[in-house]
Design brief:
The chain is α/β, with parallel strands linked by helices. Helices cover about 35% and strands about 20% of the residues. The longest helix is centred in the middle third of the chain and has 21 residues, at about 75-95.
Length: about 210
């Protein structure tokens, strides 16, 4: 599966250059999170992916969602295909730029955050900082989850959720705190007085986390 993406290259690229890979939410596109670039470190390589599946009313998704049936809320086959495509592109882009000694970060919103959880917890040795906004850890795509605390302790999570989120309930988002605590991961969990989105305080805290 080939993914389209936007990329911001720093002036100089070294084997130690940090890379940040961004994963947008359902019905959005690669331009969404890429708008954060002006406030992120200038010496980072930043990539924002576009999901492969067009959404009828516009935008793209990483997997189809059946809002009428909780048992089919996640199309797990499509989710796994998207996870494999993301991993493949992350590795290819890193190899293309010779990033052999660098920290690799993830930033995901909503559906993108769900995939970021899965990537990080299945392959903790590949990642460093992970931001998951307005999302939750989806059990159906987490496995095989790594439970080796020595591998997991190198990860740093920033989790944010709106108190009035009508799309992904706050209770779902709080599952992440329980899961990461049980796994022995380092994380910050913050709630903001907003809906399914990122308000100014959330945004400033996110940028501070990455800086």
């Amino acid at each position: 599966m080939d993914l389209q993406y936007l990329i911001r290259e720093p002036m100089e690229i070294l084997p130690t250059t940090p890379a940040l890979f961004m994963i947008h939410g359902y019905g959005s596109n690669e331009n969404d999170l890429f708008s954060f670039v002006p406030d992120l470190p200038e010496d980072w390589l930043i990539v924002s992916f576009r999901a492969p599946l067009p959404v009828p009313y516009g935008g793209y998704s990483w997997y189809e969602i059946d809002f009428t049936d909780p048992e089919k809320y996640v199309d797990t086959a499509q989710a796994h295909e998207s996870l494999n495509a993301l991993l493949d592109h992350i590795l290819k882009i890193s190899n293309h730029y010779g990033l052999t000694q660098n920290p690799t970060h993830l930033c995901g919103f909503s559906q993108g955050g769900i995939l970021a959880y899965a990537l990080a917890l299945r392959l903790p040795e590949l990642f460093s900082k992970i931001a998951c906004m307005s999302s939750y850890p989806e059990e159906k795509i987490l496995h095989p989850i790594v439970k080796d605390k020595k591998k997991l302790e190198r990860l740093r999570f920033f989790i944010s959720h709106g108190t009035d989120d009508a799309i992904i309930p706050l209770e779902w988002g709080r599952k992440a705190a329980d899961l990461l605590y049980d796994l022995g991961c380092y994380f910050t969990f913050r709630e903001y007085m907003t809906g399914h989105g990122v308000n100014q305080k959330n945004y400033l805290d996110l940028i501070a986390f990455f800086k």
